[in-house]
Design a protein that fits this description.
Largest sheet: 7 strands, antiparallel
Distance between the termini: 67 Å
Oligomer: single chain
Number of strands: 7
Order of helices and strands: EEEEEHEEH
Helix content: 25-40%
Structural class: alpha+beta
Strand content: 15-25%
């Protein structure tokens, strides 16, 4: 895991990158503020899971900065890129505060989330959404092609290493055969 970053300066929202996004991955912005995330939330005090999208493999979608989620999520998701997985520790004032969210989340609870940013999308009906969507799809295509190229290069290197190893073994066998001949002359 990476270093822990204090995103609010008061220890209220701490982020640790579990998995880095690709260098050229997109993050939420004014033109693509809708995000799709997978997450699991646990109570820091007990480690008890109170909510997760992993059990039913659902995606949670929301608009970053709209106030539709706890403050910590608006803070953190602005810093993430597609493909990134982060561990987020949220103090109560950036989560559900003194009210909590009964019955799952008690008052003044510190929460820990593991969040994966799956995608960023434009708002529905935005004028530039078609061009933004095209750019997003082109970006995803580039990312897939780059990943495929890396896999292909790794496969090629493995095959070359196998061939070199086979050649060394064959050379040793040939050398042993050669030593056996001609000694009796």
């Amino acid at each position: 895991m990476g270093d822990t970053i204090d995103l609010t300066g008061d220890g209220g929202v701490l982020k640790t990158i579990v998995r880095q996004a690709k260098a050229d991955a997109l993050g939420p912005s004014e033109s693509i503020p809708l995000v799709d995330v997978h997450y699991e939330g646990t109570l820091a005090e007990t480690g008890e899971v109170f909510d997760t999208t992993h059990e039913d493999n659902t995606i949670f979608t929301f608009e970053v900065g709209s106030g539709s989620v706890i403050k910590a999520w608006d803070v953190v998701l602005k810093t993430m890129k597609v493909g990134e997985v982060a561990r987020i520790t949220c103090k109560p004032e950036y989560a559900y505060g003194s009210a909590g969210s009964p019955p799952e989340i008690p008052p003044d609870a510190t929460l820990i989330f593991e969040v994966e940013l799956v995608a960023c999308k434009p708002r529905k009906g935005s004028l530039s959404s078609a061009s933004d969507e095209r750019a997003r799809l082109d970006e995803l295509k580039k990312q897939r092609e780059a990943a495929a190229a890396v896999k292909e290069e790794e496969k090629k290197k493995r095959e070359e290493a196998k061939a070199a190893a086979a050649a060394r073994v064959q050379a040793k066998l040939d050398a042993k055969k050669g030593k056996g001949k001609g000694k009796g002359k």
